[in-house]
Amino acid sequence: MADSAEVLVVGAGPAGLALACALRLHGVTVRVVDQAPGPATTSRANILHARGAEVLDRLGALGDLPGRSAPSLVLTTYIGGRAAIVTRFGEAGPGTPKPALVLPQTDIEAQLRARLAELGVDVEWGTALTDLAEDDHGVTAVLDGGRKVRAGWLAGCDGSHSTVRKLAGIPFPGAPLTDQWLLADVHAGWDLARAGGHGWAHRDGPLFAMPMPGGESDDRWRLMAYLPGAKDEQLTEPEILTAFRRLVGERAGLDGEKVRDAVWASVFRVHRRLADAYRRGRVLLAGDAAHIHSPMGGQGMVTGMGDAENLAWKLALVIQGHAGERLLDTYQDERRPLATEVLRNTSATTRLQIGDGPLLRLLIKWVLAPLGNHPAVQRRATQIASQLGVSYRRGPLAVRGSLLGSGRRPRSGDRVPDLRCVDTDGDVTRLHAELGGRWALLATARAAPACRSEAGASLGDRVVVLTPAGWPDDEVWLVRPDAHLAWRGRPASGGLGRWLRGALQHGRAQP
After folding, report:
1. Does position 352 have pLDDT exceeding 70, yes or no?
2. Helix, strand or coil, per DSSP, at residue 91
3. How crowded is the C-beta side of 279, counted as CA atoms within 13 Å?
4. What is the pLDDT of residues 283-294, one digit of tens each?
5. Are 427 and 17 spatial neighbours (Cβ–Cβ below 8 Å)?
6. How far apart are CA 106 and CA 317, in angstroms?
7. Burial label, 230 (beta-carbon count in 10 A; 0-12, 13-18, 19+)
8. DSSP letter assigned to residue 368
C-alpha cells in the first residue's frame, strides 16, 4: 500500500466513509484509517433522516437500504399512562423522494464501505493516528509503530474524542447537559405494537422503547432511559439490564421480567460541544469530531454526512487546482451555523424531556400534547429533522437576492429538489443521480453551449447539462455536487463566469 495520498481520512464512521466516497467520485486519491480492530457490530443510531438518504443516493451508496427500512418512524408518547401524542417522522411532505431510513447505523456504514471498495479504497482497520506534522505542502501523519503517511490534506472524522482535533489544537468547548442515560438493545417478549416507537413521560425522566428493524417476528427493542442524579457510574451490562427491568415497570407499567437479555448495552451522558474551527491549515474536521449534541431527533448521522458532502467538492477543487484555498473557508461558514442550530434544537428537546415540576407537566399535557398532534406541527418537525430545508442563502457563496425576481424559488444557496430531467443524449434521468462527483447545468439545448463553456473553463469536465421538462430558454441554473443552487441567471449574461471566479478564487460570490 502506498504511503501517500491526496487526502488521509481518519475515522471510518458515516462521516469519514461518506467523505472518502465523495472524494473518490471527484477523482481524488484517498486513504482511510481507523483505530478500531474492525467495523462496529453494535447498532448505535437507528435512523438516517431524508437528507442523509439523499447523500447516499448521490454517492451511489443507497443500494437496497430503502427496501430494508421501515417506511417511517412513528413515536407514541404516553402521559399519565395514556397515549397523548402520536408523531410520524419519515415523510417530510408529499412526494419526498428519499424518506428517512429506519435502520441501524451498522447497515448504513456497511453500505458505504461496499461503495468505497467499488471506488478502489478499503478501510485500514487497527490503524491509529499518533501524531501529525503540517508544512506548506501537506501533512505527515504518524501511525501505529511509527509508520508515516504523507498527505496533502488530513480530515478528522474520528468522533467526539477526536485525536485529529486534539493534535491540531482546535478547542472543543461545551458542557454536559444532563445526568446519565442508559441505552440497550434487548430481546423482550411484551405485546407492544412494533409499528412504531413508544415513549413514556415520567417525573423521574423519560423512557423510550423503539423496535429494531426486522418485522413483527423480531423481538429486539432499543431501550433508552434517563437516570437523574447518576454521576459517571460505570455500570456493567448485567447491571444495565437489571436497571431496565425495574424502569420499564416503574415508568411504563410493563413487565420487566419479559426483558430477557441484552444484545448490547451502554451508559452515556449528553454533551453539547462545538469546535471553535472546522479547519486549521491543512487539517479539517467533520461529523462528531466537529460537533456533538443530544441524540434526541436523530441528527448526528445526517449532520455528519452533510458535512462530508459539503467539504468533498470544495477540497477536490482545491486539490485539482480549480480553486484557491479560500474556498475551504466556506466549509465552516456554511456548516457551522447548521451545527449551532442542531445543538440548540436538540438541547431544548432534551431539557423538555427531562424537565420536572407541576407547571411543566401541565404545559406538556394541555399545550404541547395537543399542538404535537396537529398535522402542520408534525410536518414542520419532520421538515426540520429531515434537513431537507437546509439552506446556505446567508453563506458567502450565495448571490444576494435573486437575479430572476425575488419571489421565485429556489434561491442561490437553497437545496434543489431531485428534478426529472433529460440529458444531452435524450435519455430521461434524475438531477441527483447525475451529481455526486459532478456539477449540473440546467438549461435548454439552445441556451446550454455558452454557459457550458463558462462552467468548463472553471470546473473542467465535471459538468453535465440537463434539461428539466418545460424549462425556459432564458433561464440557467448551476447546481453544486451537494444539490444546492450555486447560481441562476440569464444565458450569455456573463454572470455565471463572474460567480465562478469569485467563489472559486476568493470564496465569495460575485453576482
Report:
1. no
2. coil
3. 19
4. 999 999 999 987
5. no
6. 31
7. middle
8. I
